[in-house]
Amino acid sequence: MLRGRVVVTCDTARMTTQPGPPRETSGGHPTSSAAAGTGTRLDPWLSAYAERTHGMRASEIRALFAVANRPEVVSLAGGMPFLEGLPLDDLAELAARVVATRGLQALQYGSGQGDETLREQILDVMRLEGIDAHPDDVVVTTGSQQALDLVTRIFVDPGDVVVAEAPSYVGALGVFRAYQADVVHVPIDADGLDPDALESTLASLAAAGRTVKLLYTVPNFHNPAGVSLSAERRPRVLAIAQRYGVLVVEDNPYGLLGFDSEPRAAIRSLDADGVVYLGSFSKTFAPGYRVGWVVAPHAVREKLVLASESAILCPSNASQLAISTYLSTADWRGQIKVYREQYRERRDAMVSALAEHLPEASWNVPDGGFYTWVRLPQGLDAKDMLPRAVTARVAYVPGTAFYFDGSGADHMRLSFCYPTPERIREGVRRLAGVVAGEREL
Ligand code: PMP
């Protein structure tokens, strides 16, 4: 029996129902009554979804990514770290040891804030970027992606403004959208976020009576732009945010992956009260354990723990103990050096291939991280071109993914983290062929 009332709109393909449990087909899947006869499965819950889900959309490029993952395609699209240099035998032994010696803890529920020993070890990692914090200031999260979700959840009401770099990390934009924030972008240049543009944006938002809750920034080896906020700009950006009463969210998964430089002092090292800092083991070790963290002022930290407990009760003890054991027994600093060398070699392959094959485009030469941000020759549209690129067996992410309003089609993000240098060169060669074809169209 169908208990939800079917409401057929003028477009029958977008039929909705009043809320109510779905009718079961013989296969056990909910269908609408009209759809049952046609074999088309429509969503009988369409009108029941919360308002906030309207902003949640599948990436337009997800379908192409399924193709991009085929072995014959060189994917310069994803941001997956290259893990083949990890000592997997040692890590297998370490994981087994965790269960053998501390299994009852590893497999049990744990603290909502995260394991205390790990929180102390995280302080050692952050000291490399000049951060002086207390273990109590740290909340362990399921990757820094969950940290982004928690921070947004506790601060952002629908319609609040989040100020973010143009372009910005696509996963952060997705979170802001899910909480119905309005993202206002501020331009960046070779030295990162432009403080003058930040100042004038915040001034005009204040004049318009808008509520600005967060300034979201990736200050090191930006995703997707590859640039870093200069040392000179860091205190200026902070001072401007402070003047307008805006909390800075410093998202820093790549900070230790500089190719030629020592880690820069974090914005959080300049101020403990106005900055929420997000860290992650995903790029400096491995993303599979899904361990990240937040450092936040005391009162904010309490709210973050409550929000995290309501979402997940507690982060995985098994993952936390594995990472904690890795930090205490393995040469994690040495592993980061290995990564830096691997990614530097790949960056070199990327920029030399661009110079050889695509001289009519322009790009930055990142000195750390995973990404090159490429501006296409005039008139070309990276989103429009993507299906033809995938046909030519190369994939990238169009710039449109990194702007809240979908602009940025003249850019693409090329990741050099995962493919080998030879594959990167081959990918750029294929891309150049696609660009040449576009210009003839
Ligand atoms: N922030 C940025 C800027 C990222 O690039 C990523 C991953 N690509 C994340 C956050 C999320 O990382 P994780 O959840 O694996 O820590």
Automatic annotation (TrEMBL):
Gene that specifies this protein: avtA_1
Pfam families: Aminotran_1_2
Protein name, UniProt field: GntR family transcriptional regulator
GO biological process: alpha-amino acid metabolic process
Keyword Signal belongs to the record: no
Subunit structure: Homodimer.
Domain of life the protein comes from: Bacteria
Keywords from the named record: Aminotransferase, Pyridoxal phosphate, Transferase
Domain Aminotransferase class I/classII large stretches: 80-431
A GO term, aspect molecular function: pyridoxal phosphate binding
Xref: InterPro entries: Aminotransferase_I/II_large (IPR004839), Class-I_PLP-dep_aminotransf (IPR050859), PyrdxlP-dep_Trfase (IPR015424), PyrdxlP-dep_Trfase_major (IPR015421), PyrdxlP-dep_Trfase_small (IPR015422)
Keyword Endoplasmic reticulum: no
Similarity comment: family membership: Belongs to the class-I pyridoxal-phosphate-dependent aminotransferase family.
Residue ranges that the Swiss-Prot or TrEMBL entry lists as coiled coil: none
Cofactor(s) listed: pyridoxal 5'-phosphate
